[in-house]
Design a protein that fits this description.
alpha+beta; Immunoglobulin-like; 3-stranded mixed β-sheet; 4 helices; 36% strand
């Protein structure tokens, strides 16, 4: 009896660990919902690029971690990234009005289609910086909102 009491008193952390929910203790992925609004029309679709590092943001979609697209309805759209690991991310979006899966620009490189980024980050004489668009995702379900801007 004394031995059992001694074990219980010496190892309370062990018993606390057993009491924790295994699903929450080991969960490292979650859902990120991105709501995009302020489209000038419902024509085309929205392309949403998720980056987990600065390199390539937002000009090199081939360096994005994931890319999703969605239809536009009532001048807004929603995309959901599932099973996303907890990390730091930045999101870049554009209104693909002609559904060619690329951001159309003029001869100076200025977008002809609407653009946006997480934190509604804006660029100065160019696209927004990763540092301005980045946010922490802890694995819990999260929703972010992005407003499209036409330049």
């Amino acid at each position: 009896m004394k031995r059992n009491l001694l074990v219980f008193l010496l190892f309370p952390g062990f018993f606390g660990f057993l009491a924790k929910s295994p699903a929450k203790a080991f969960s490292s992925t979650g859902t990120l919902k991105v709501i995009i609004s302020d489209f000038k029309s419902n024509r085309g679709s929205v392309v949403v690029e998720l980056f987990n590092k600065e390199k390539g943001f937002p000009k090199s979609p081939e360096k994005a971690l994931k890319i999703l697209s969605a239809p536009i309805s009532k001048k807004m759209a929603v995309v959901v990234f599932e099973n996303l690991p907890a990390s730091e991310y930045a999101v870049s979006v554009f209104h693909d009005e002609n559904n060619n899966k690329k951001l159309d620009t003029n001869f100076l490189g200025i977008p002809k289609e609407g653009v946006g980024a997480s934190n509604n980050a804006k660029g100065h004489f160019g696209p927004p910086k990763y540092i301005d668009a980045k946010f922490s995702f802890n694995g819990d379900p999260e929703t972010i909102a992005i407003n499209i801007t036409y330049l």
